[in-house]
Amino acid sequence: MPLPRFAFVVAAAALLVGCGGADRLAADDNEAAEAVRAAAEAVRDAERNGAERLAADELDRAKTRLERARAAAEIGDHGSSLRLAREADATAELAEVLALSAKSQNAARELRATIALLREEIRRLQAE
After folding, report:
1. ∠ at Cα 68 (57, 33), nearest 5°?
2. For residue 8, what pLDDT band results from cuts at 50, 70 and 90?
3. Secondary structure (3-state) at 2
4. Three-state secondary structure call for residue 50
């Protein structure tokens, strides 16, 4: 292959590889943006389910990671943004599960107390 033709083929290959990298960068940008949206929704879900009161540490960690993900996206560090958003999402889900678990435990405790009162009342009525 003559040198000019070889140079053209190499340049074309480099251009194609470069375009593939640009596509991947765009996909990372979109993927990171979607991950940030999902993490923000997970934080809102956790807040709606009482995590501010029942799992405050985990919710705070999720919010911090979400803010860091947003900051990374703003400077174009989509890899870090994606990673931090995924961590925020998982941490927010943990906060939500902990809050729901605490609510369930409180409800079970109240139910046991109510059952104990009802049993006591039944015993009292039977004794009369």
Report:
1. 115
2. very low
3. coil
4. coil
- What value does the mean pLDDT take over residues 79-103? 96
- CA-to-CA separations, 4 to 9, 16, 41, 52, in angstroms, rounded: 9, 18, 55, 67
pTM above 0.85, yes or no: no
Q: What is the CA radius of gyration of the chain?
A: 28
User: From CA 22, how far away is CA 26, in angstroms rounded?
Assistant: 6
Q: Where are the domains of the chain?
A: 3-127
Q: Is the pLDDT of residue 6 over 50?
A: no
**Token digits of residue 57:** 């540490």
**CA dist 112 → 10, 66, 102, 115 (Å):** 76, 39, 15, 5
